[in-house]
Amino acid sequence: MVYFMVVISATGTYRFKIVLYGPSLSGKTVMLNTVQKTFFGKKSKLYSIEEPDGRTMYFDYLVIRPEKASKIAFDIYTVPGQKRHARQRRIVLNGADCIIFVADSDPQALPENVYSFNEMKNYLGGLLNKIPLLVAVNKRDLPDALPVRVIIGPLKLDRIVPIFPTIAISGYGVKETFREAFRLTMLAKFFPSIYEKELERIKKEYKHLLPKELLKKALIKL
Predict the structure, then answer these.
(1) Cα-based angle 181, 95, 41 (whole degrees, multiple of 5)
(2) Residue 67: partners with Cβ closer than 8 Å, 6 or more residues away
(3) Which of 7, 26, 73, 140 sits most deeply, having the most CB atoms within 10 A of its CB?
(4) Domain that holds residue 133
(5) Cα dihedral across residues 150, 152, 157, 159: positive or negative
(6) Domain count, the chain
(7) How many Å apart are CA 210 and CA 2, to the nearest integer?
(8) Of residues 140 and 42, more confidently modeled
């Protein structure tokens, strides 16, 4: 079972856990590196536990404190993408307040996107519909990148979520993804009524990126 909560530190700081989930080599670590280099506010160094080949073995970890919000801290983790690290992924996912699913635009990675997303849904269960979920469709600079709708369709989302085309290595779309993740996470915890209204805005803003099958569902849970 996966649990979630807002942690308040001894100094009165509200801490929120954001997890980047996705298949191996989708760009999660690169995305976190980009955030560490470009985001304003107080930031920790990027901590990584890697294998000899540079792939994430357990997790990457970064703390961001937004400007003008000294009592707010976001603890950001990535999960290792390789299938043999399933246990580590489940441990890192525990206590998440928000999920950013990083999908790979490479046509060869489509099955891995689906496998990773289904695994995440299985681990989170009903909690997935209670916390913010965003999808970063990464590697949009690939010459053979699949259309966003083709990538999103097989994930079989049961709700409309924010979707950001990104190029982690250049930073394209990365700041926007994290700003929205930070904002929705705080709204969900501190202002649930406003968060519900934001979900209606999300439904209108991102529906053009979704497959028609999802839009036709009679019971879309937002």
Answers:
(1) 40
(2) 40, 41
(3) 26
(4) 13-215
(5) negative
(6) 1
(7) 28
(8) 140
